Amino acid sequence: MSAADAWERTDGTSYPTGYWAEELAAPHDKFVGAGFEVDFASPGGVLQPVDAHSADPAVAGEDCGRYVEHAEKALREFGPLLALTDVDIDDYVAVVLPGGHGPVVDLFQDADLGRLLTAADREGKLIGAVCHGPAALLSAVDSDGKWLFAGREMTAFTDEEEQLFGTAEGAPWLLASRLRELGAKHSGGPAYQAHTTRDGNLFTGQNPASSGPLADAMIAALS
């Protein structure tokens, strides 16, 4: 997960951000329910705050309270997050990248995450990313600057959804457009409706509603 709590805008203002509760809680709940052990990690092991919008029923829906409660309980019981520098990909069968706007602030250029994703992909381990989480995939570049996931099928929070959410204007860059510019085969479904894709070991979800279906697809593949 990201460690960012603010997203700097092109007009110089700072937009508060954090993890999106459903995107962390729904996959965690499903993976633990399927018998997997889950670790949390971030740059420097910093605990990111919850995105306040994901705790607002008017924005995130009436069920958001249970996602917030589950996420906070999971993070509290886990204890200090692992630092990405200390993660050994050989200890894991899958990597899941939740959203909130944080990944477009730090994870998209995090060299430690890039190293982990490169190793995970090389070894055929499952990689999942939802909403703004696919921004973190941009960290996986080789010594020549070539993006590991260029040419792969994926989805992410669409430009339309960013506009509807009110965060497109002033954004340093829009995620779906950036992914396409760098060579991803990006597809999008209807705004805020569940939409997931799979390309080999890469699983992606478009938005918060895609979080549970993304986890279901990954668990089915692991089984």
From TrEMBL:
CDD domains: GATase1_Hsp31_like (cd03141). Residues 23-216 form the DJ-1/PfpI domain. Keywords: Glutamine amidotransferase, Lyase, Stress response. InterPro entries: Class_I_gatase-like, DJ-1/PfpI, Prot/Nucl_acid_deglycase. PANTHER family: GLUTATHIONE-INDEPENDENT GLYOXALASE HSP31-RELATED (PTHR48094:SF11), PROTEIN/NUCLEIC ACID DEGLYCASE DJ-1-RELATED (PTHR48094). Belongs to the peptidase C56 family. HSP31-like subfamily. This is Type 1 glutamine amidotransferase domain-containing protein.
